[in-house]
């Protein structure tokens, strides 16, 4: 059975977890206690020198980086991938766009606005990242006006990658109502069999941490 080292707050881990769920893969989550420094431990660095989740173990195979894991799962299951070389390139194009323009910005912005102590949050940084994120979202909104899915006539891992952070409930300046085409597209993804929201799919959430902190008071 596949093991996915992850925690609920990680949007990148969610992309891998959701890909596993949608392809009906046999897998189990392994909780990584990120907020208490687990990814900085020598044991975790032996598993992934980059000190990041997600990490996937499939027998002796260990993979890191969400896009690589998604590509592996898609190839292994024959699901959620492009049907031709041209479609595969289009899938990769949108996944690279996500890494650089969407998740790479949304993740840091969400962390700034929700998980840093308030006295360490930088308003200028938040404003800059928000502008960057909305520039990318406008590109997706325009593309989705004429396309049902991002990279193909059917859902692919490109959709799962670009949508990953957009399903989180915390504030990071994204409002679905401002992007009707993205809103419709997210509803399409949420309607897929075996879809689940991040905190339902992986262990660890802000509520869990709050409860744990209360129990130690």
Give the second-level CATH assignment, the architecture of the largest domain: Up-down Bundle
**DSSP helix fraction:** 40-55%
* CATH fold assignment of the largest domain: Glutathione S-transferase Yfyf (Class Pi), Chain A, domain 2
Order of strands in the sheet with most strands:
2-1-3-4
Count of helical regions: 9
Uncertain spans: none
How many domain regions?
A: 2
Number of E-state strands: 4
Would you list the SSEs in sequence order as H and E? EHEHEEHHHHHHH
> Residue-averaged pLDDT, rounded?
96
Q: How much beta, percentage-wise?
A: 5-15%
**How is the quaternary structure best described?**
single chain
Could you tell me the radius of gyration in angstroms? 17 Å
CATH class of the largest domain: Mainly Alpha
List the helices and strands and how they pair.
Blueprint: E1 2-6, H1 11-22, E2 27-31, H2 42-47, E3 55-58, E4 61-64, H3 66-77, H4 85-115, H5 123-145, H6 157-163, H7 180-190, H8 198-201, H9 206-216
Parallel strand pairs: 1-2
Antiparallel strand pairs: 1-3, 3-4
Describe the structure.
The chain is an alpha+beta fold and 217 residues long. It has two domains: 2-79, 3-Layer(aba) Sandwich (Glutaredoxin), CATH 3.40.30; 85-190, Glutathione S-transferase Yfyf (Class Pi), Chain A, domain 2 (Up-down Bundle), CATH 1.20.1050. Helix content is 54%, strand content 8%. It has nine helices and four strands; from the N terminus they run βαβαββααααααα. A four-stranded mixed sheet has the order 2-1-3-4, covered by helices on one side. Helix 1 runs antiparallel to helix 6 and helix 4 runs antiparallel to helix 5 (123-145). The mean pLDDT is 96.
């Amino acid at each position: 059975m596949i093991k996915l080292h992850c925690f609920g707050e990680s949007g990148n881990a969610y992309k891998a977890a959701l890909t596993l769920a949608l392809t009906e893969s046999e897998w189990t989550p392994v909780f990584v206690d990120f907020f208490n420094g687990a990814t900085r431990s020598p044991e975790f660095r032996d598993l992934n020198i980059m000190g990041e989740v997600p990490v996937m173990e499939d027998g002796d195979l260990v993979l890191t980086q969400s896009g690589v894991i998604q590509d592996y799962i898609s190839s292994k299951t024959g699901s959620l991938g492009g049907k031709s070389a041209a479609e595969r390139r289009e899938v990769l194009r949108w996944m690279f766009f996500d890494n650089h323009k969407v998740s790479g910005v949304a993740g840091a912005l969400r962390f700034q606005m929700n998980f840093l102590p308030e006295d360490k949050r930088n308003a200028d940084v938040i404003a800059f990242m928000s502008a960057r994120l909305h520039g990318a979202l406008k590109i997706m909104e325009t593309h989705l006006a004429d396309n049902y899915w991002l990279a193909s006539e059917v859902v692919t891992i490109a959709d799962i990658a670009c949508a990953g952070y957009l399903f989180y409930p915390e504030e990071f300046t994204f409002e679905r109502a401002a992007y009707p085409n993205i809103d419709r597209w997210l509803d399409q993804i949420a309607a897929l069999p075996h879809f689940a929201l991040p905190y339902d799919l992986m262990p660890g959430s802000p509520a869990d941490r709050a409860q744990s902190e209360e129990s130690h008071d």
